[in-house]
DNA sequence: AAGTCTGATTGCAGCGCTGCAAAAGACTAT
DNA sequence: ATAGTCTTTTGCAGCGCTGCAATCAGACTT
């Protein structure tokens, strides 16, 4: 039993297939009477357009892909949760990909390859790819990059002002009277742009307060996750002169750090104050609740989707722009204590 | 500048388009010399097949959709992280959808509607739909259901033995000497099957130990999240006779409950032991670490994908089966204390 | 040497839709 | 009544690929 096609509907309604197509797509001018006839026929036959055929005819898939390093990282899943409805609203479906931060995988994705045409555009949150890697890519693919890379002019970049945000976080620690402030999460190598910006904010806040930076208090980690946070915190505590506050480059890192502190019988924030970054839901429910920098994820999602739609819709190349979403400092128990 | 097509390759290689297609798809028998010729031509022209055209010709999209209620719920994002690679391995791309548990949205998804043909099959984790709702659906859509519904014979169901798992969790609480055990998460209404199975396990464990169940210790919640867990725990503590242990229907609920306990200055597990369900990553890093029931997510993902592939590949209807993945009890600090 | 068989290759048709531009109708102005 | 204008509808062709069945070439039988 064949599915009903445009042609079937056309026959029943007594019009041409093209007219049915016009009705279905809301295209062009169609008289009300014709429209009604067609709609009645559609209803009667239970016609549903064949997306595959439409895709081939239009050369578009109506899908975008969102690529994140890790799906089970709360920040990304929360972001995704914001992107999907925004895309759907624009009439697009969302494919999801995770790369595990693998540079090869990431590179293969932006060069399209076998999955060409499967999606009309990409929202990409790179991890393993450096700024430079991003530039050698299939220029035909409309691309919006999230995170901390900067645009090379061929794609858009949406992010928050990481330096300002990080600086605000550290200034907050200074304001509550901390004097030995550590940073956990630095990544001083090409793919560590995100981390490096936060380190710059860390320095900026010190400079603004007229404080020197103790370089030995900047601890590197491979990833921004709990284990790394816990390990780095342990290393800090094993020193002769442990810090009295830590700026963690993600809430997960913060959560790991807090874990270590509590395990050693130290109090947060009395002994060591902690501030994170990302404002993941977890941070609002742990104990203590985690002070953090909250990027406006909804704004990021909406902006990214809007720009991507614009790129997809435009015949000629759209110059890439830098777009900043808002962020704000949210002090919670891990710096202010129980209220 | 047109993209190169099969025809271009055929011309350059001096063979028919059909032969090129055969080479590309690894179909049929092709002599080594022909294959080489074709492959050389492909490389020379940088030919990449047009997925859209292939989809139309074959009537398949090479995509499956995974539908979950909430993407930012760790259990689902962890599950998704397991499903995506499994599907990719089988040559399928994964679309992701979240329904917010909205019954209307869920219903529209399983009835296919406008997105017909966009995916060849669906892995669906229902929340708002009752058993009955599931049965009125587009039978043509290959479907594998996750979670706690049971198959009506037209789709496969993959889950763990919830009753046994819940019972094991509660038995664990009994074994460590607890006498007043509460349950947080019951949902005594049609769409609450998941919760009800856990409640049955709760009762079963009591029965097995020859203990009566105090019905007033079974607390309902609208969702399985932190807030609900925290609220329910507070209600329990406000009673004259609070429990000394709680079986929480998810790790998030457990996390919320622990939050309340600690906030009130109670100790976990000394004053109240807590066990959760799902084994999300968070539970391994919080303080205390959360004892839990760990469903084998990798097995669930693999089984679901395998079954779906089988359904997609089969011309005639495949009878639906019930498949059980393994689970195990993982005692951690929230029941055993610090070691 | 003719007949048979096996495996490699090919041609045709069409998947169901839309872009394009032309045709048909409706209406206005002369 | 006729030409001109604008709106609505239509026909054609083709997006690039694969299913199917037929064809062809070579090897093997008798």
UniProtKB/TrEMBL annotation, chains A, B:
SUPFAM superfamilies: lambda repressor-like DNA-binding domains, Periplasmic binding protein-like I
Keywords: DNA-binding, Transcription, Transcription regulation
Pfam families tied to this protein: LacI, Peripla_BP_3
Boundaries of every HTH lacI-type domain copy: 4-58
UniProt superkingdom: Bacteria
CDD domains to which the protein is assigned, alphabetical: HTH_LacI, PBP1_LacI_sugar_binding-like
Any one GO molecular-function label of the UniProt entry: DNA binding
InterPro entries: HTH_LacI, LacI/GalR-like_sensor, Lambda_DNA-bd_dom_sf, Peripla_BP_I
Entry keyword Transcription: yes
PANTHER family attached to this UniProt entry: LACI-RELATED TRANSCRIPTIONAL REPRESSOR (PTHR30146), LACTOSE OPERON REPRESSOR (PTHR30146:SF153)
Annotated protein name in UniProt: LacI family DNA-binding transcriptional regulator
Species annotation: Paractinoplanes pyxinae
Lineage start: Bacteria, Bacillati, Actinomycetota, Actinomycetes, Micromonosporales
């Amino acid at each position: 039993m064949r599915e009903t096609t445009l042609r079937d509907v056309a026959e029943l309604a007594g019009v041409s297939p093209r007219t049915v197509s016009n009705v279905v797509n809301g295209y062009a001018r169609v008289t009300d009477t014709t429209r009604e006839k067609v709609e009645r026929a559609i209803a009667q036959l239970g016609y549903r357009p064949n997306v595959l055929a439409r895709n081939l005819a239009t050369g578009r898939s109506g899908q975008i892909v969102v690529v994140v390093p890790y799906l089970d990282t709360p920040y990304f899943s929360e972001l995704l949760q914001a992107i999907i409805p925004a895309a759907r609203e624009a009439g697009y479906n969302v494919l999801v990909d995770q790369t595990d931060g693998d540079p090869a995988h990431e590179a293969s994705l932006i060069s399209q390859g076998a999955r060409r045409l499967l999606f009309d555009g990409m929202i990409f949150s790179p991890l393993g790819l450096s700024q430079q890697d991003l530039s050698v890519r299939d220029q035909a693919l409309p691309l919006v990059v999230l995170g901390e890379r900067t645009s090379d002019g061929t794609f858009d970049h949406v992010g928050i002002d990481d330096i300002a945000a990080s600086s605000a976080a550290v200034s907050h620690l200074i304001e509550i009277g901390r004097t030995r402030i550590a940073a956990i999460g630095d990544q001083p190598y090409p793919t560590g742009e995100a981390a490096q910006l936060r380190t710059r904010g860390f320095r900026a806040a010190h400079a603004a307060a007229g404080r020197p930076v103790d370089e030995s208090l900047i601890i590197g980690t491979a990833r921004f996750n709990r284990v790394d946070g816990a390990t780095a915190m342990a290393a800090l505590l094993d020193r002769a002169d442990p810090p009295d506050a830590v700026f963690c480059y993600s809430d997960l890192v913060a959560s790991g750090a807090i874990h270590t502190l509590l395990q050693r019988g130290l109090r947060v924030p009395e002994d060591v104050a902690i501030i994170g970054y990302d404002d993941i839901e977890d941070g609002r429910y742990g104990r203590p609740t985690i002070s953090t920098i909250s990027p406006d994820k909804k704004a990021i999602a909406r902006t990214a989707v809007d720009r991507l739609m614009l790129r997809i819709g435009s015949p000629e190349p759209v110059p890439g722009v830098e777009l900043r979403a808002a962020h704000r400092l949210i002090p919670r128990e891990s710096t202010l204590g129980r209220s």
